[in-house]
Amino acid sequence: MNTLAIVSRILSAGVTPEGPEPQMSVLPKETCRVSEPRPVAVIVLAAGEGTRMKSRIPKVLHPLCGRSMLGHVLAAAAELDPQHLVVVAGHGKDQVGAEAERLAPGVSVVVQDTLGGTGHAVRMVIEALGVMPGIVVVTYADMPLLRAQTLGALVREHAEAGHAVTVLTARVSDPAGYGRIIRDAGGGLAEIVEEADATPEQRAIDEINSGCYAFDGALLADAVKRVATSNAQRQEYLTDVVAIARGDGHPVGAVLAADPDEIQGVNDRVQLAQVQRVCNGRLLEAWMRAGVTITDPAATWIDVDVTLGQDAEILPGTHLEGRTEIGPGARIGPGCLLRDTTVGPDATVLYAVCERAEIGAGASVGPYARLRPGARIGPGAHIGTFVELKNATVGAGTKVPHLTYVGDADIGEHSNIGAATVFVNYDGAAKHHTTVGDHVRIGSDTMLVAPVQVGDGAFTAAGSVITDDVPPGALGVARSRQYNSAGWVERRHPGSPSAGAAARARQAQRPARKGRAQKDRAQKDPAQNDDEGSQGT
Ligand code: UD1
Ligand code: CA
Question: What does residue 310 show for φ and ψ, rounded to 5 degrees?
């Protein structure tokens, strides 16, 4: 037990962090078993260092499509509904163990302190958890494309054939680096030879070991103890269990993976990008088959937990992340990044960045809008160009069309917020709240200095700095009165083009003095001037 620390923490239900920041994908609670019989254990090897990733993050925690590599593998493993889900952690064991427990509460994490090889890793599991009679599946945490169905087929074949070991193999165009599958004269599986130990003839074989197996648990427990280290890498090879079992007279076999993509391992970031594209492509294909239009799958990225409604349309350059939900008939993109955002039916979002936002049915957002956490856009509302919202509710049918910041506010229904309005929510120390009622007209360039309320049906005059509440139906005017210094340009800039234009206008305007007098009178009482609450629309 000295090199072995059993972490094996069986966690209670409360392990999923409940912080304000949603975490990367967690496996669904309910999983349906993909095959009979039920394996006693699935062991996921994740102790390797991943040097070629050149990363501070352990290799198996690198994400693709919103879930760590480890998460993808645990998700597939969980679908087999094993009695024990086991992760072998070594490098970065604390982080890997914590992520395993977050994803799959109840997982057994076994620590492998020295990397003695894949056989050593499995031996550590058996020393920690005991002999597991039944079918034991072993796979790698850096093989994230392996499907649950493929694991299920492996288990089924293993059980039906009554094998001691069944190896998942693949035919690949470039077998370099893999263990080669050696077959006997009758075509049966004879042994697996690692590349470092292979003869030139064996290296020419294009059928390779995926690294995923089904074992008889009792035979495995016995065989891993007998694995030698007399090989090129001085390691305990799990692959040697094949020859050991066969030598003992037990039947062994192989299942060829139909899709070699599935056994693609990730050792560096080039391979990470390749598997990410495959994973993304699978998700997009599934959504297209479910009735979603994706105009350019090569330029569209979605996470595993995203859901898309029927007839939704996703345009190029769109990234849908986290638990984003897109309603039926909604049109997203081009050029959108949505994270943990809900979009209602038939809404449109164009060139926008939205995080933890809610967009109601038929609402439109963008182009060039930013919805920060807590932005809730009501049905049919419109958020326009260069508008930012944070922790703000916008009622049904309300428009915030241009150049506006709305922070910490509730805006009622069918109101209009004029261009360049700022909800001034921060006094340098604390955030304050603004309430705007229904059918309100906020004039362009209004500063609403929170805390402040604008009642139902009220207007504000353009350019106002509103520091006091505006009662329902009132016009709030809060700006200095304009003063015109008559003839100033001709005095200050005589002979200039402006002075010339002014002189010509003065000549032309002489007969029209009556109209100007009327306007001067109206400005003395702003409340009688219907133009004051002028809107940007
Ligand atoms: C292994 C197989 C090889 C197969 C290939 C497929 C052996 C001896 N060889 O070779 O036949 O074609 O995978 O990718 O098994 N790991 C541990 N603890 C260890 C060593 C490895 O947990 O002590 C984990 C690694 O994190 C990794 C996996 O096991 O996820 C495979 O280890 P790696 O060293 O990459 O094996 P390969 O040499 O690629
Ligand atoms: Ca490898």
Answer: -60, 140
CB 107 within 8 A of CB 101: yes
The dihedral of CA 161, 166, 167, 168: what is its sign? positive
Ligand nearest to the backbone CA of 60: 1
Please give the distance of CA 39 from its chain centroid, rounded to a whole number. Answer: 31
For residue 319, what are the β-bridge partners?
Answer: 301, 337
Phi, psi of 276 (to 5 degrees): -65, -40
Report how far residue 53's alpha carbon sits from residue 272's, in angstroms, rounded to the nearest whole number.
9
Q: Render pLDDT for 197-240 as a digit per residue (tens, 0 to 9).
A: 999 999 999 999 999 999 999 999 999 999 999 999 999 999 99
DSSP 3-state of 388: strand
Instruction: Give the mean model confidence (pLDDT) for residues 499-509.
Output: 96
Please choose, from the candidates 447, 363, 378, the residue with its C-alpha nearest in 3D space to the C-alpha of residue 410.
378
pLDDT in tens, 426-439: 999 999 999 999 99
Band (pLDDT 50/70/90 cuts) for residue 17 is very low
CB atoms within 10 A of CB 40: 16
The CA–CA distances, whole Å, from 237 to 327, 431, 516 equal 50, 61, 96
Q: Residue 423: helix, strand or coil by DSSP? A: strand
Q: Ligand 2: distance of its center to the CA of 267 in Å?
A: 7
Whole-prediction pTM: 0.88
d(CA 341, CA 359): 8
Q: Is 116 in the pocket of ligand 1 (CB under 6 A)?
A: yes
pLDDT, tens digit, 9 for 90 and up, residues 300-319: 999 999 999 999 999 999 99
Mutating to test ligand 1, I would choose from 118, 174, 189, 241 the residue with most ligand atoms within 8 A of its C-beta, which is 118
pLDDT of 351 > 70? The answer is: yes
